[in-house]
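User: Can you predict the 3D structure of Glycoside hydrolase family 68 protein? Sequence below.
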Amino acid sequence: MTETPPGQTVTRPSAWTRAATDGLSRSDNTVSPIIYPPEESIDPDLHLWDTWFLRTRDGSIAEIDGYRVILALTSSSDLLPGKRHDVATIRYFYSSDGRNWETGGEIFADASGSIEGEQPFGSRQWAGSALYDNGTVYAYYTASGERGEDELTYTQRLAVGYGGTIDTSDERLEITGPWTHTIMLEPDGDRYETQAQSRGMIYTFRDPWFFEDAGETYLLFEANTPVPEGSPHCDDDTEAQQFNGSVGIAHSPSGDPTEFELHDPLLDAVCVNQELERPHIVVKDGTYYLFISSHMHTFAPGIAGYDALYGFASDSLFGPYEPLNESGLVLTNPENAPFQSYSWLVYDHGDELLVNSFFNYFDFDRPSLDDVALLSESEQMRRFGGAPAPTIRLAVDEYATKITGVLAHGHLPLPTEPLPESPFSGRDRDRRDGYLS
Ligand code: FRU
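Assistant: Sure. Here are the predicted structure tokens for Glycoside hydrolase family 68 protein:
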């Protein structure tokens, strides 16, 4: 066991239980409005999905000479959307108003797409987070598979590329290397399942999210809790035992943002759900709000969940965490468009929380996301958003949340920028009148 970080009492892991998920059901407080395609795409050449801000150590959104920066998983928009995870590349985008975004380019490559110096780990890079500290960019990512592999593998390791610097002019912002890459963490097989131990559907050890609290430096990530055959969990139900998602945490004793040690998970969902994706925390009025994204099809048999943003709260970083709104459900898609958005990221905006996500499959209400494969290729292309979704406004009152409005697609205001008084803005304004009681 590693030491508990200073000043922390351990009450973990908290559990997302089957009893809590009994209460999962859509309500006016948790269902987002239907999404229509944006008038203009952020970059027609790209599919864009999981997105995150460049931030400073204290979690503030970095402001660099008037620009804010987001990083996102991307692929060519010529690609069949279901194939995009196999070639995911992290690109950055910048904006001076939070509405209009310019494509900066591949984070680890130069303008021509070539990489000088060290190559990133993995045969492709999955989601992460990004820190701007002392003039240096730290781009955290999931190294998925092995660099140079002929056949795709699904190993996942938590990596960081660092050493990037930022130049700006009136017209543009540019992030350039050379980058140094390091693998920070791999599963230990004890607190965190290795791929070899996995009995379940989709193995996970990914999505590193940098976070500081009370002067201590942490990394949150998505993982699985080892549940060996013969475990007593959920009354020996061997099928349900294969669903064992967790939210992992690692600590950097020195504060070095590239060196972390594993700790016990903050939360797990053994016998409940396999994938607790992109975990992140927002601290508000002394309460720690832990958010994850998950899919309908990753709940254990017998649990009817949704593709949704789920949340948990605690008055300490290490828990115990209780599900928000009793079941954990914070924000989901409407019943007639159940897969319209995914991969939610919540950030603080003073009185409210704002939630970014990407526009996923629309005009599609089959029972499972897997059924996308039943569509013709041209329909798979037509019905995939692959762009930022409208930003959702969320009110939070202790352990309860409520959707209160929506901003335009990809509108990501800084906490210092006022929000419109009308709950619905942009293209959605007229359609949304009266949507909220
Ligand atoms: C969520 C996710 C992440 C992963 C990425 C891969 O949308 O599953 O957990 O990093 O997609 O594309």
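The CA atoms of residues 93 and 104 lie 5 Å apart. The first helix runs from residue 18 to 21.
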